[in-house]
Amino acid sequence: SSLNLNSLQRTSQPVYGYLKGPDGHFVVDPEAAPVVKQIFSLCLAGNGPTKIARMLTEQNIPTPGTMEYR
Fold it and tell me: What confidence tens digit (pLDDT) does each residue in 31-54 have?
């Protein structure tokens, strides 16, 4: 089946890994991009959310809730 973009829930605030650009569109956050890629790699390697969170904490990578959004 094809993805219907009109049915996706929309948000006014960017999710982790994105920033709002000057034109109001979301753009990739260059600081968060490596972390997002690491999270996907860890997930694909079979790690669950709790283990991934623990690994990121051990690397002193801040969570979105502790980051100051720009």
Answer: 999 999 999 999 999 999 999 999
Q: Do the Cβ atoms of 52 and 42 come closer than 8 Å?
A: yes
Q: Which residue has the tokens 């790699």?
A: 41
3-class SS of residue 19: strand
Q: How far is CA 39 from CA 15, 50, 56, 57, 67, in A?
A: 14, 12, 9, 12, 17
pTM: 0.70
d(CA 43, CA 50): 11
Residue whose entry in the numeric block shows the structure tokens 């694909």: 44
User: Running DSSP on this structure, what letter comes out for residue 33?
Assistant: H
